[in-house]
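Sample entry (364 residues):
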Amino acid sequence: MNCRARLQQSRPLFFLATDEGASSSCFGGAGPTVNRSRAQSRLLVVCMAFLLASTQFSFGQVEFPQSEFDLGVVKQGPDPLMATFKIVNRTLDAEARIVSVRSSCGCLSASAKDTVLSPGELTVLQLKVDTLTMRAGPFRKYVHVVYEQAGSEKVVQLTCKGSIVSPPVYRTLAVDFGEIRRDEIRTKGIRLEMLGNAESLDVVAEKGPLKYDITRDTSDGAHVLLVSFEENKISVGRHRLSVRIFSDCQDFPLIEVPVQITVLRDQALYPDTLVLDLASDPASISRRVRVGDQQDGHVSNVSLIDVPAQFDYQILYSDLEGDCFVQFQWRGHEKRLTHGNMYVIYEMNGVLRKDILPYCVLLN
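Predicted structure, serialized as tokens:
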């Protein structure tokens, strides 16, 4: 036997059934060679099917094609900036659910169009950036998307960046509240004649106690900014705040109004607590309290809030001297110490005030 014959005998044979029921060799050899290419194609299909069947439960996941959105250089203004992120469920048989979307600051809001994604489904996450409360310069904000899939939660961080350019700023004279008590209610206004007939106005105040409103002077139609502050939400000391007004006025697109205020320490107009000592004198069930400091002016429109139900009271005005008193009378039946605070609201010389009146009832 020659070398060629021995080599053919030692070569392994691999057979695959064909359409004709015959056997053909895939790799040569002594067997038939009918329809060899068709048999190889069928073998490839079988292998691919086996591969897909073994990986179908782990194929793909929730995908975020873009994790960062660059807004570029933008101009600060009332119109919010918009950014869109795509979310795709790449799995073959697992549903995905968006649990929550959290932003890194209050100037950024985000919402998903759909919260439940079927296999292969796509949705979009819409971001809205409010530049009114942001400072000029580069910024980078984040959104954290929490989604659940196959019983487990995952978190993905998306980034929105850019740079804000502030329009030219026109600063007015400061609104100076002077020295006030923390529990005092006061409002001041400033005329903004430079706005002319501006139609679109967006007012933004720094985070804090300031409240504001835009109105018009009925005599000439000029815009007037009214500024006040929320009582008991400002600390003792000197504060420099500001109110910013964005408008469609071409010459004055941004106006800044400085606000100055000095809050004094609480100076109680009632140095003595309203005390009814029924333990030592059961007959002392009533007491009269003077409202405000009548040396400063005339008191009017007196009212009380947070008065316990055990108190009866009567407001007494004196027309001759402008004095005002509140007559309290106790009608409770408690057997223990009762104490707390009530509030007296009144007007003095056209200024609305609010004072704290602590009380204490000593019982048997």
